[in-house]
């Protein structure tokens, strides 16, 4: 791209020179294109005061050099700026008035420089592209070998704008979706435990009756052993023997056992007689071998004498020690 195509003034001069040397038919076509494109400057509304639009700043308005400047219209790139200029004026994106859009685009760049804002290089590249397209539209188109005219120089730019508009619309649609942590929030919800019920199996009645019969048979085979409490204790039987000896000083040992009480009664009577002998309350006497055994009550004097002898023996043992 040459410098003549980048600069607006040089582009206009080049276009006028080309028009002067072109054929009459070419001049007429160029004049029709120039008439169809409005070159009037677009007046932007700065503010509304009581319903009246203000397009120019008052001459006596003083703005300090260090005043706060706020610029609300920001664009993500040159395509975004072009799309904004086209949509703001309801222009057909397939038939872009390049001269009008180029003028507004250059005014925006000039405004950015006046506000001392840094512009990326892609904005300047787009400005050069617009000037090139504008120049090519003003010049007559060359016919190709097959007789077809040269393609519209705006075609590639229109395709880029259409593709950018689709992606921008998709991004806006995605941005309107509810965002996690902003529009929607997660709730910690605990589900109550769900009881799991099992259906009973389908069992025929005959099987239940057979199982019940087997249980009854097992009960009969394994009878539990019942432990019964003794009707008499050893201490009670000792008391009974002492009462009998108080009435009868001598008792036959065989008469102490009652066969009606069974084996437990014999054991209790035998243990009771042994406890009485151990406590030296009775004596057991047998006059000859294999003779009858008799239970004889000790007199109180004998019990006291035995107790005294036991005490003296203990004292002598302690003295010897």
Automatic annotation (TrEMBL):
GO terms for cellular component: cytoplasm. GO terms for biological process: cell division; chromosome segregation; DNA replication. InterPro entries: ScpA (IPR003768). Residues 1-28 have a biased composition (Polar residues). Residues 1-34 are annotated as: Disordered. Keywords: Cell cycle, Cell division, Chromosome partition, Cytoplasm. It is found in: Cytoplasm. The keyword Cell cycle applies. Participates in chromosomal partition during cell division. May act via the formation of a condensin-like complex containing Smc and ScpB that pull DNA away from mid-cell into both cell halves. PANTHER family: SEGREGATION AND CONDENSATION PROTEIN A. Component of a cohesin-like complex composed of ScpA, ScpB and the Smc homodimer, in which ScpA and ScpB bind to the head domain of Smc. The presence of the three proteins is required for the association of the complex with DNA. Belongs to the ScpA family. This is Segregation and condensation protein A. It comes from Candidatus Venteria ishoeyi.
């Amino acid at each position: 791209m040459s410098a003549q195509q980048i600069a607006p003034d040089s582009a206009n001069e080049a276009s006028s020179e080309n028009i002067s040397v072109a054929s009459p038919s070419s001049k007429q076509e160029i004049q029709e294109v120039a008439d169809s494109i409005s070159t009037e400057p677009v007046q932007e509304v700065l503010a509304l005061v009581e319903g009246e639009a203000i397009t120019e700043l008052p001459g006596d308005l003083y703005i300090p050099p260090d005043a706060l400047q706020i610029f609300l219209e920001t664009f993500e790139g040159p395509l975004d700026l072009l799309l904004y200029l086209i949509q703001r004026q309801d222009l057909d994106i397939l038939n872009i008035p390049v001269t009008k859009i180029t003028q507004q685009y250059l005014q925006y760049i000039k405004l950015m420089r006046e506000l001392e804002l840094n512009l990326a290089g892609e904005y300047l590249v787009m400005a050069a592209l617009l000037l090139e397209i504008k120049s090519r539209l003003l010049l007559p188109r060359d016919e190709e070998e097959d007789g077809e005219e040269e393609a519209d120089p705006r075609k590639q730019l229109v395709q880029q704008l259409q593709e950018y508009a689709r992606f921008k619309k998709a991004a806006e649609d995605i941005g309107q979706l509810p965002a996690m942590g902003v529009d929607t929030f997660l709730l910690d919800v605990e589900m109550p435990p769900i009881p799991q019920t099992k259906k009973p199996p389908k069992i025929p009645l005959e099987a239940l009756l057979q199982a019940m019969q087997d249980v009854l048979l097992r009960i009969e085979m394994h009878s539990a052993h019942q432990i019964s409490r003794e009707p008499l204790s050893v201490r009670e039987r000792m008391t009974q023997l002492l009462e009998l000896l108080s009435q009868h000083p001598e008792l036959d040992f065989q008469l102490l056992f009652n066969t009606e009480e069974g084996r437990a009664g014999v054991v209790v009577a035998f243990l009771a007689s042994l406890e009485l002998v151990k406590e030296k309350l009775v004596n057991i006497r047998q006059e000859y071998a294999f003779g009858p055994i008799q239970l004889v009550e000790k007199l109180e004097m004998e019990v006291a004498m035995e107790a005294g002898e036991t005490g003296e023996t203990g004292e002598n043992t302690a003295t010897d020690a």
